[in-house]
Amino acid sequence: MQRGLMTKSFLASAAIALMLALAGCANTVKYDESIAGGTTRTQTDDGTISNAVNSMLEAMLADSQVQAATRSARPMLAVFGLINFTYDPVDLAAVNSQLMNTLSETNHFRFADQAAMTAASEQWKDNLYQLFEQPASGQQLAQAVDADYLLVGEISNLIRTEPKTKKVFYRVGLKLLDANSGEFLWQGKRELLKSEKDIIYGI
Fold first, then answer.
1. CA distance 145 to 181
2. CB-count exposure of residue 171 (10 Å: 0-12, 13-18, 19+)
3. What's the half-sphere exposure (Cβ side, CA atoms, 13 Å) at 119?
4. d(CA 123, CA 21)
């Protein structure tokens, strides 16, 4: 049984990597490691992001509505994983692989066929933001693979300007969509400080 779960987890992780390749085709990624003068960069790496994702998964599984949905049955879950809306070289394959492993270990869900998931995801490769933000799009994807729920997430940049400082955060979010109602059953987000810079003369 354990070997079977490991095999399913590996196949699911591989399929997620293929879906992320579709996302890569739709975005131009710039790799710029330079830091502006006066900027303090914090240590926010892939491990920090994975920890935030695991924290959200714990919160999701503890949610009363999610517990009710998984109490007497193991519903079918389509896992799209996190989408990178930044220009930063985040290792999404590693982050999403950890997400999938964590979900597999809970034994609360069955998982949609990943080959079908990869094929069905093709039509959103140029509209990933729509897939994350619009429930109707997520519902369409979930129904295409006969899933009861869809789990999709994001990594985006969030800028907050205060009177004397400018702070840039990673916003890491997850959403669980109910394919039947077409509504988000659960949503969670975390903010991770990337950098902080003093503002001079309001710039």
1. 16
2. middle
3. 7
4. 13
Chain-centroid distance, C-alpha 178: 16
In angstroms, the CA 91 to CA 169 distance is 17
- Answer for the pair 128, 83: CB distance below 8 angstroms, yes or no: yes
By the 8 A CB rule, do 49 and 155 touch? yes
Q: Which amino acid is at 82?
A: L
Query: What is the mean pLDDT, run by run of 10 residues, along the chain of 203 residues?
Result: 43 48 38 38 79 94 95 93 90 91 93 89 83 90 95 92 86 95 94 85 53
Report pLDDT digits (tens) over 88-114: 888 989 999 999 999 999 999 999 988
CATH number 3.40.50.300 is the correct assignment for the domain at 2-27+43-198: no
Domain extents in the chain: 2-27+43-198
pTM of the model: 0.78
Q: What is the 3-state secondary structure (H, E, C) of the chain?
A: CHHHHHHHHHHHHHHHHHHHHHHHHCCCCCCCCCCCCCEEECCCCHHHHHHHHHHHHHHHHHCHHHHHHHCCCCCEEEEEEEEECCCCCCCHHHHHHHHHHHHHHHCCCEECCHHHHHHHHHHHCCCHHHHHHCHHHHHHHHHHCCCCEEEEEEEEEEEEECCCEEEEEEEEEEEEEECCCCEEEEEEEEEEEEEEEECCCCC
